[in-house]
Design goal:
By secondary structure, chain A is α/β, with parallel strands linked by helices. Chain A is built from four helices and seven strands. Classes of the chains: A alpha/beta, B mainly alpha, C alpha+beta. Chains in contact: A-C, B-C.
């Protein structure tokens, strides 16, 4: 008896044959949910293939997760048939680097800026623009979503900084 | 001596400053209350406009640092008020006669009434803020759109009455009430154009708050802002009185208390129509407003003048 | 012609929340727009990592005021997926009811805001008056007007009685008549049409490229609705239409939202008239097995995407919230360019922006007192209520 393949199985097969092993660990968790892994440097190629050959046109979001040794960047792709495909790119935490996919899909720009600001992922080729979502005067090199980031220390630092600024302002006021 | 005292009375009490301020605030309340009722709201209390004014008068004036012409910035609101009061002296209120009465005062009133608009433009220009700058550009653009239809529409009754004097015009229509019907188109055109003059919806483009915050008045505060608001309220009264005199036969030959009551009722009716227009529409864009005024209002007002001339020269030759 | 730069925000009457749009104008025309977000960044995602799954749910619910149910449901669906729980049908039905009432409430709110942006205050007042009916209905069911707090991992917290069903049905029917009136009004009033037709055009291919979601995408002819594409809760079994429009402008967005309200009424009537019997929740363990889940929820403003990762501990390892405004924000600068300044406010409003959901997430400390840990907060609460004569110290909290 022949079983008709589900759309998830067809997707899995396409990914395996089309990308020659760049996408690994493809698992079908339930209907409409497919998860997979890849290396950080392959993301751009895989995205291009998915958009051109497999009909993925909607990037739901990009999630960055600090997993200790590595920073995993999850690309959630929506398909017209309802499949939600998650591509998990693994990058080393010490030197987390990615190539931007905004040239393929401009809608990714805010998600990538979020990775830069909150997780300290170096996204190369990102178009110029304001940072998002942290304020312009947020100290460089601090990334709140890293597990090692210490909120208490940050608050103390920023209070010290504010106090210093206030002191300078008061001094200036006195001089006038 | 008595003449000087009377002149002072005319300028300061009636129909000058005091009456205009009091009735202007009342009309503002009436307008706001009607607007609120039409929108299913309660609306303000009777003394709310007065309370607003007193509050503004007691507030500090903040003048932005980059205003170069500080003196002009301070004096402009008073010029607007002065212009409106001057115009009021030339319009008949409760009786057939106005304080300053001469042949051609209709034209003078129409010109003096553009002075507040021009001061608003200067107010925006001297404020040196991007919102005010855009507001001023819009004030001027809008002036060119509504002023021509308004003037033409106001001239039509004068053509029919054969006089450029507001008192004569109102007397003419008071004695021949049926002739008022000839000017219905002109009345409609002027009521719509007035929304532009008074900067109300759908023509409140110069201070559209969701686009340019306070428009030309963005940088104004305290007393100065209070006087600007007051000038607009007074302008509404004067304009309503002008419509009443030119289109609706003024006091209809009455004078004294009866004439005054009639004046109040008729101006409130005009305010009612203005409030109705305000609550029925959305704000249009400046280029839509220009197109509307030149495509519809201006031709309609010219049509009105033609009708008046035809009536005057052919049908009503006996006059 | 000289160029003027006009700041629209972060504080501006057209915006109900802070966001910055720096518009470069040539006369009245916008030639360039620079956008800046992040004024409302509260660090919710980080904060959720230091709370357990139930506490995080209440935090996530407070990401947004208007779509509180949407965020909470999307999060809870993730928790349930990780726990492998089978949520009772009645709970799902109640979630649908709240969700659709929320959509009505959000769209009516939007209609009012949009009317205000184009200076039509009468429509603004009318639609907000009628929105009170939805708020009353929500209050009848949940006891709250904004944060319904109906969800709990494994189901819902309150049941709906037959009487409540009757009250809500009557309100929905009354509302349906009003919505039909608004549809007539919005599609016939000449000034509304003049201000919305041909404004803020977003062609279909741009909408796809910029990953637009929700009514913005649907008004550009992209049939994208999670309720149809990837049905969750009971949406697979309900009869409703997917509203799209090929107008690609603000009028299209108005059209889509207006008719979506009618569809919501239809869904509500179906569910309320056919409420499955049974339990309203199942138990869910405090600790979830390691794993990850991602779920989508069609919030009134578009698609919410929630991602949840568990490492087997008490607290979630990573919570990710993607609010619809962020997805739609990329389209805003495209729509602004070439349009008039007068239209900037309505173009921005037409995506129904909600910056506080978009920016989410900070750590709030009363100045100078440092961080209050969860334990401190609880002992403070116990002290507080002891003074009022209630002792909460016996209550077990994991």
């Amino acid at each position: 008896m022949m079983f008709k393949k589900t759309k998830e199985e067809i997707l899995k097969e396409n990914l395996e044959t089309g990308l020659k092993g760049k996408v690994t660990d493809i698992t079908i968790r339930r209907a409409n949910r497919v998860y997979s892994m890849c290396k950080g440097e392959d993301v751009w190629d895989i995205t291009k293939y998915m958009m051109e050959k497999l009909g993925f046109d909607y990037l739901c979001t990009i999630t960055g997760a600090d997993c200790g040794e590595t920073i995993n960047i999850l690309y959630h792709w929506g398909h017209k048939d309802g499949t939600l495909f998650t591509l998990e790119a693994v990058t080393p935490a010490a030197k987390s680097e990615l190539k931007t996919i905004t040239d393929l899909i401009p809608g990714a720009v805010y998600y990538e800026r979020e990775l830069v600001d909150l997780l300290g992922v170096n996204v190369t080729g990102l178009p110029q623009g304001n940072r998002y979502p942290l304020p312009d005067d947020f100290p460089q090199g601090q990334h709140p979503l890293r597990k090692s980031w210490d909120a208490a220390k940050y608050i103390k630092d920023s209070e010290d900084r504010e106090a210093a600024v206030r002191k300078i302002q008061e001094d200036n006021a006195c001089r006038k | 001596m008595t003449e000087t005292l009377w002149s002072l009375f005319y300028i300061a009490i009636y129909p000058g400053m005091f009456f205009l301020i009091a009735y202007g605030l009342f009309c503002q309340w009436f307008d706001r209350k009607l607007y609120a009722q039409m929108q299913n709201r309660r609306g303000p209390g009777l003394f709310q406009p007065l309370a607003d004014l007193v509050k503004l008068l007691s507030k500090e004036i903040v003048i932005p640092k980059n205003v170069t012409e500080v003196r002009m910035f301070k004096i402009l609101p008073y010029i607007a008020i002065a212009a409106v009061t001057t115009a009021a002296l030339m319009i008949p209120f409760e009786s057939a006669g106005s304080v300053v009465n001469f042949q051609g005062d209709l034209i003078a009133v129409l010109y003096i009434l553009t002075i507040p608009t021009v001061t608003f433009f200067l107010i925006g220009w001297s404020s040196q803020s991007p919102y005010s700058a855009i507001g001023s550009m819009r004030v001027l653009t809008q002036l060119f759109a509504y002023e021509v239809p308004l003037m033409l529409a106001m001239l039509a009754p004068a053509v029919l009455a054969g006089s450029w004097n507001t008192s004569d015009i109102s007397l003419f229509y008071a004695s021949r009430p049926l002739l008022m019907l000839v000017n219905v188109i002109g009345l409609g055109v002027s009521l719509v154009a007035l929304q532009g003059k008074l900067e109300r919806v759908p023509f409140d483009i110069p201070h559209a708050e969701t686009e340019i915050v306070g428009g030309v008045f963005t940088e104004y505060s305290g007393r100065l802002y209070g006087f600007i608001k007051l000038a607009i309220d007074m302008e509404m009264v004067v304009v309503a009185a002008l419509i009443n005199a030119v289109f609706l036969g003024g006091s209809l030959g009455l004078s004294g208390v009866l004439g005054f009551a009639l004046f109040i009722i008729k101006t409130l009716c005009i305010v009612f129509v203005l409030a109705l227009i305000k609550s029925l529409m959305a704000r249009v864009r400046i280029e839509q407003m220009l197109a509307f005024c030149w495509k519809y209002l201006a031709p309609l007002s010219i049509l009105q003048i033609i009708i008046s001339i035809v009536m005057r020269s052919i049908v009503w030759q006996g006059l | 012609m000289p160029k003027i730069t006009v700041p629209l925000g972060p504080q501006h009457p057209a915006l109900k929340e802070p966001g910055s749009f720096l518009l470069c104008l040539e006369g009245e025309q916008i030639v360039d727009a620079t956008l800046r977000l992040g004024y409302n960044h509260r660090g919710v995602e980080k904060a959720a990592e230091s709370r357990n799954y139930i506490q995080a749910m209440y935090l996530i619910e407070r990401v947004c005021g208007i779509c509180s149910h949407a965020h909470a449901t999307a999060y809870v669906m993730n928790v349930e997926e990780l726990a492998g729980a089978d949520v009772p049908k009645r709970a799902k039905a109640i979630r649908v009811i709240i969700g659709e009432l929320e959509r009505l409430h959000s769209h009516l709110l939007w209609l009012g805001v949009a009317a205000h942006e184009i200076g039509f205050d009468t429509l603004f007042m009318y639609s907000w008056r009628d929105r009170e009916m939805v708020m009353d209905a929500l209050e009848t069911i949940s006891g709250n007007r904004v944060h319904y707090s109906m969800n709990t991992p494994g189901g819902v917290r309150r049941d709906i009685t037959a009487e409540q069903v009757k009250t809500v049905l009557a309100k929905v029917e009354a509302l349906e008549r009003r919505i039909k009136y608004y549809i007539d009004l919005a599609t016939q009033e000449p000034t509304v049409i003049a201000r919305t037709k041909g404004v803020g055009v977003l062609p279909k291919d741009e909408a796809v490229k910029r990953c637009a979601a929700g009514p913005l995408a649907r008004a550009s002819g992209v049939a994208r609705d999670v309720r149809k594409d990837d049905p969750y809760l009971l949406y697979g079994e309900l009869d409703f239409k997917l509203i799209t429009s090929d107008a690609c402008d603000v009028f299209g967005r108005l059209y889509v939202r207006a008719f979506e309200m009618l569809e919501s009424c239809k869904i509500l009537k179906q569910v309320l008239n056919w409420l499955p019997e049974g339990a309203i929740s199942v138990k869910i363990p405090v600790k979830l097995p390691p794993g990850q889940a991602v779920n989508r929820y069609e919030a009134p403003r578009g698609e919410d995407v929630h991602y949840l990762k568990s490492d087997g501990g008490l607290n979630p390892a990573r919570v990710k919230v993607r609010a619809p405004t962020l997805a739609n924000f990329t389209s805003v600068d495209y729509m602004l360019k070439g349009d008039q300044l007068a239209d900037a406010a309505i173009i921005i409003a037409a995506i129904d922006p909600c910056f506080s959901c978009t920016d989410r997430a900070t750590i709030v400390t009363p100045a100078g007192t440092g961080i209050m840990s969860w334990r401190d907060m609880r002992s403070h609460g116990i002290e507080f209520y002891k003074k009022k004569g209630i002792d909460f110290s016996k209550v077990k909290v994991f």
